[in-house]
Every structure is written in C-alpha cells, then in structure tokens.
Amino acid sequence: MDPRQKDNKINIELSEEHAEGIYSNLAVITHSNTEFIIDFIKMMPGMPKAKVKSRIVLTPQHAKRLMKALHENISKYESIHGSIKEIDERVPLNLGGPTAQA
C-alpha cells in the first residue's frame, strides 16, 4: 500500500444512539453565502405540527459533494432495484392521513 493512502484513512465511530438513525419524511434546505442548512423533519399524518429531528450545517463545497454522492448512490440503487417512482412534489399537510375531528 502506498504510504500516502494510509494517511488518508479516517477512523469513524458510530455510537449505538446514532446507529439507530432518525426517521425523516421531509427536508427543508436553506442557504446563505457561506453555508447550507438541511433540516430533517418528521411529519405525522393528521398532525398540524412537525418537529425538526436533526439539522445539518454544511459548507457550499460539502453540500455539492453531498449532492454528487447522493446522485451516484441513487444511480447505483436504480441500476439494481429499478427506477425510483417519484410522487407529487407537493407535500400534503396531513400526509394523506385521516382528518382529525373533535
């Protein structure tokens, strides 16, 4: 192995808490001239409120790398599992769940 390659390795730890992951069915992206902010949100059917479950702040360069990595991984996924069906771009406020009644 080239000694330079050894120096480029990163040891990444994943705690049990983070390994479980956080479910999100909505992402809101905002940006300034120095950073991109992605809020991952969990909306529940029929609920008028939603909570931000996680916020990630990225530099513009890292945001672009993330976009490229997502594109590459989606392409790999679709080559194995077929095209991902896209749904209507608009997110219904109730996510298709029953309407709450008093």
Task: Describe this protein's structure.
The chain is built from three helices and three strands; from the N terminus they run H-H-E-E-E-H. The chain has a domain at 16-81. The chain has helices at 3-7, 16-19, 60-81, and strands spanning 26-31, 36-42, 51-58. It is an alpha+beta fold and 102 residues long. The chain has a three-stranded antiparallel β-sheet with strand order 1-2-3.
What's the shape? extended
| Strand runs, count | 3
- Please give the share of residues in helix: 25-40%
Give the DSSP E fraction (strand runs of 2 or more residues): 15-25%
Report, as a whole number of angstroms, the end-to-end distance. 68 Å
Short description:
This protein is of the alpha+beta class. Helices cover 30% and strands 21% of the residues.
List its traits.
single chain; 102 residues; alpha+beta; 3-stranded antiparallel β-sheet; extended
Q: What's the arrangement of secondary structure elements?
A:
Elements: H1 3-7, H2 16-19, E1 26-31, E2 36-42, E3 51-58, H3 60-81
Antiparallel strand pairs: 1-2, 2-3
